Each structure stands twice: as C-alpha cells, then as structure tokens.
C-alpha cells in the first residue's frame, strides 16, 4: 500500500503536535458524507495534520475514481471488487457511510454476476458518493486553511 493514509499509526505518534480544530459540520448540513469526528480523532485536533490527511484522502479518491472507471471500461469485475473492498475499508475509518454502502453494492454486483447496465448504475452511484465526499472534505480543508497557524507544529 506504500505510504498510504490508512496504515496503522500509533495515537501517540499522531498526537506529537497539539493544536485546536474548531468544531465543524461537513458542508451541506449534519447528514454529511463522512464523520468529521473520526478525522479529528485521527488527527488529534491538529489542524495541520488534519489538512494533510484530507489532502491525502482527496488524492486517493481521485485516483480510485479513475481506476474504477478504467476497470469498468475493461469489464474487470475482479479488479472492481478488490478495489471496492479496499475503498470500503478506508471509508470505514472516516465514517463515510455512502461510500461504504456504494462499495458494498459494487462488491455484491461483481460477485453476483449483475448485468452490465446495472453494474454501471452502481458504479455511477459510488462515483457520486466519492464526489460528494470530495466536496465536503475540500470545504473542511478551506476552513482549516483560514485558521491562524498554531505554534509548535511538528517538524518546524
């Protein structure tokens, strides 16, 4: 998995720096595409770390969406199923329920021999869930960027 976001990391390592992230709701109200508190727990209320995590998630989401489209075009159901499983695990870490549900449907469709046109619909729904997640994550990132820099950031 390389140096991906979701490798196990000890809480103490993450919490080396202390900052404060103001409470924020995801864009679009309380029924968001993910659980902001899950990200806050991972980042230890460190705005700089939170921003880096969000940037990494957004980058992974873009790559995953491109790969989903490519695998669908190739008719590679096994590849789609494996990718959906990986995305679902990552989505679980941040409480991205719509993405998790879309991945579950895609896994079931690939494994159960779903008709190609139905599979395309499932993929489109998953891509929409990923897009909504991107929008909400970017909104949070913009909010974080407007915060004054906290003193004592790690590595600085």
UniProtKB/TrEMBL annotation:
Coiled-coil residue spans: 116-143
Superkingdom per UniProt: Bacteria
Annotated keywords: Coiled coil, Phosphoprotein, Two-component regulatory system
UniProt modified residues of type Phosphohistidine: 85
Residue ranges of every copy of the HPt domain listed in the record: 46-140
Name of the protein in question: Hpt domain-containing protein
CDD domains in alphabetical order: HPT
InterPro entries: HPT_dom_sf (IPR036641), Sig_transdc_His_kin_Hpt_dom (IPR008207)
UniProt keyword Coiled coil present: yes
Keyword check for Transit peptide: no
